[in-house]
User: Fold ABC-2 type transport system permease protein from Saccharothrix variisporea.
Amino acid sequence: MSRLVVAVRVEALKTRRSRVPVATAAAFAFAALVGGLFMFVLQDQRRARSLGLLGAKATLAGAEADWPGYFAMLAQTAAVGGTVLFGLVVVWLFGREFSQGTVKDLLALPTSRTTIVVAKFVVAAGWCLLLTVQLAVLGLAVGAVLGLPGWNAGIALTALLRLLAVAGMTVAVMSPVALAASAGRGYLSGIAAVIATVFLAQVVAALGHGHHFPWSVPALFSGVAGPDRAMPGAIGFGLVALVGIGGVLGTAWWWRDADQDR
Assistant:
């Protein structure tokens, strides 16, 4: 256990000294502000047109400028935007060792390869959790500034728990990206896996089979398909868990058994 703690500290230190966390934090901050902008427009579309925020003949429908609507938008941001952003976090953590040529030095340390992989996943989960908390805090601040109606402590708690659940599932289904980045020995294969995941999740959900496709489940659970769509069931959630566990185990197996010939 002490070796795992040390490995986590090392990975966290490498992450802290990088500019990537700042970039991801800025991306999620921007997402919260864009959500607030949509709420501002929905509050008074005439005012938005006069300020040049909405075209003269354009209208926005299907959403309400209130707390439940804003919370739903934040959850959808964590699902859709998180698929890309969380995936890139995983790609960076695993692909950087190969792209920067430090993987052999890392594997020469008196720490097992499995411990290194677990440490990277722990840092990835913590990183994505902090991004989700930042999204929630900024969302609460933006909603308070806008004076959105419909505030209720019970609704807020339920919405924030859903936001965390959506983020957790999104992180879980992106774990196989670590295997892609590792097997491809760099960023390119990992990024390709992220793009393929986003594309397939959209296509399968549009065909009506998203409830049984793990990468579509977080977005459907967030309500991105609309309130009329049924929530994913036990099978969908179970597949999310299996993909998350399988991604971690598969990555650990590859790091343990693969030949590092360059």
